Amino acid sequence: MSDEFISENIKAALKNDPPGEWMTELPGECIRLSSGYPTPALVPAMQLKEAVIGLLEEEQDLPLHYLGSPRALKLKEQIQKRLGERGIRVLEEELLVTSGACQAIDLIARILIDEETVVAIETPTYMEALEIFQNYTERFISIPIDEHGLQTNLFEEVLAERKRKGLAIPRFLYTIPTFQNPTGTTMTEERRQHVVELATKYNFLIVEDDAYGELSFNKRPIPLKAMDKEGRVLHVGSLSKVVAPGLRIGWVTGATEFIHALDWFKKDLGHPFAEATMASFLEYTDFEKRLKILQDTYQGKCSVLLSALEQYLPESVSWYVPEGGYFVWVRIKGVDTSQLLTQALSEGVSYVPGKYFFLDQKEGTEFLRLSFSYADEKEIVEGIQKLGKVVTKWMELRP
Ligand SMILES: Cc1ncc(COP(=O)(O)O)c(C=O)c1O
Question: What is the CATH number of domain 25-43+288-397?
Fold first, then answer.
């Protein structure tokens, strides 16, 4: 009966794959190379406990009201400071705190996408963003990524052709230029410059998802937002990967007109207590020191994973070497990684099959995403050993 009441747009969206399909149920003992979660030991549980105690002693019931507290209001300043470190200078009215980067992406989709709107994405891309956009439109242009990020020359060719043929130019490009999910790749400076120029030339916006931007192993790439002179870039960020995902604190920065519209639809659907807790934590944390620990830890874990891949995977298997973030993108030629997953799970290791990161899932058959963030170094080696075993067996049975 509910069918007659549900809106046509929602009914159409419900025909897509359900959200979170990539999150396979894992057997108890499984080594989780699938989870893009922070290292448990680096989630600052005790410091957050202190932050909560300090907050409630100082502000009592205030952070628990709808309106939030003076401490929560400080969060914007703290985010502005973090952005400043990356060369992004924004005014208070150009910044909206959201419930994670995902709420920011959803709000952006809501204010920018009409049914007929064309959205440009890089391929492969973050599956949750893909799911969000698919709730609003079916019209996508997908531009492939190589080891240097989005292939901007191909993008330009597509744009030029669409213009020539009188086809719609995408309203925005969604990109993760820095330590991308799932490929771990980073867009070169030249390509960054190019894509910002293309946005001007063809008149579209860029949604820059920078969820991993602070987790660099060496060089800190310049965000697109720091190159943006025309207010074309909406920069989305998150503290999930560097503090704690359960607090779900993210943000979006951009021109005031956009922030005004985003805020309008966000209404007061934020979390004043989580915001105040995060603000209190940031107030008493040496964040640069914390970042250095995170960067060193993830770099160490990444290199353990890469060495294990060299050691335990057959020679025909290839991968991109990341310069930061959480992920390594692996290609196993001739192997359907969705089918292989059953064997991997029964051996005791998980990964995410590549297909979930593609609009056309067939394109992702031979790929898989490994995460070095969650498992510890010993588990990473064991996990890759297990993966090596199932891949080798698969190849022997199906030469
Ligand atoms: C590229 C990207 N953007 C956004 C998010 C989600 O961030 P948040 O937890 O702030 O919603 C993730 C988390 O996996 C991600 O990989």
Answer: 3.90.1150.10
Q: Is 175 helix (H, G, I), strand (E, B) or coil?
A: strand
Q: Is 87 left (phi over 0), alpha (psi -120 to 50) or beta?
A: left
**Is the peptide bond between 70 and the residue preceding it cis, with omega within 30 degrees of 0?**
no
C-beta of 35 in contact with ligand 1 (< 6 A): no
CA atoms within 13 A on the CB side of 197: 10
State which ligand 1 atom lies nearest to the alpha carbon of 102.
Answer: 11
Beta bridge partners of 352: 369
Give the separation between CA 159 and CA 122, rounded to whole angstroms.
Answer: 14
Structure tokens at 331: 């290609």
Q: Where does the chain hold its CATH 3.40.640.10 domain(s)?
A: 45-283
45-283: what fold?
Aspartate Aminotransferase; domain 2 (3.40.640)
Query: To which residue do tokens 């995408």 refer?
Result: 170
Q: Cβ of 93: how many Cβ atoms within 10 Å?
A: 12
Q: How far apart are the first and last CA of the chain?
A: 52
Closest Cα to atom 16 of ligand 1: 181
- The residues of the chain that CATH labels 3.90.1150.10 are 25-43+288-397
The residue assigned the tokens 């079916």 is 138
The alpha carbon of 198 and the centre of ligand 1 are apart by a number of angstroms equal to: 26
pTM for the model stands at 0.96
Over the stretch 68-125, which tens digit does the pLDDT of each residue have?
899 998 999 999 999 999 999 999 999 999 999 999 999 999 999 998 999 999 999 9
Distance 176 CA to ligand 1 centre (A): 10
